[in-house]
């Protein structure tokens, strides 16, 4: 069977079930031609994203809408192929859809993260200069959600093993291994906190606490983030990157690293999803469509594959 024959069978089946599919039929034959030219034998999510994102010249439809339409057509076909052979991956919903409700991520460079952490060491009052540099560094190094970090109990932080247990996040409980430098920073903070904070910490059980020993509140963390990012020069009247963008930066850097190393990104994506605590795979794959450099890597991968096959023909 060829890809074109597979598309024809799929279209025939859908029409027998009452679907029209005039637009999707045209798109899927283009997709079949691409798969054939690139000698791709199995549909992958990353390849589907890259193909859906490459829009023909002169298209007047908004890019996000056009890409979403292409992905919708591919998803239906991939679902059909997956039923025939599980080797084919089915793109999750939501990668291109709902563009108005997703803010484009701000990706920090290393110098910017360092500057914010350094600025946090100069925060005045209480124990802020000792607590917030460690907290911000933890967010940058692990991609944790802010709420997950401030919800950490001391019992969930295993500094001997260098592992955190995230049990109060959005998804299922998960283990987050730490880089040795992060473990060292937490090891330095924990005894300082015990020496300088009220013994009420023992009752709250919080790993990160304020001077009174109480668990940090999100409003206070956000206020200190704004102060530190402003003092570092990163936050201005026209540029206001969010604390949550530290999480986006971690995810994007992980993906970029894999692309640059030639790693099979499709095989690694489930690992990143679990590490980040994403309950929907689309939340992880979204980064490829949202960050131009990642999309360029995905597209280049497809172009290289196609060029190699055309050279052999």
TrEMBL record:
Keywords: DNA recombination, DNA-binding. SUPFAM superfamilies: DNA breaking-rejoining enzymes. InterPro entries: DNA_brk_join_enz, Integrase-like_cat_sf, Integrase_catalytic, Tyrosine_recombinase_XerCD. Pfam families: Phage_integrase. One of its GO terms (molecular function) is DNA binding. It comes from the Bacteria. GO terms for biological process: DNA integration; DNA recombination. Belongs to the 'phage' integrase family. This is Integrase. It comes from Cryobacterium psychrophilum. The lineage of its organism: Bacteria, Bacillati, Actinomycetota, Actinomycetes, Micrococcales.
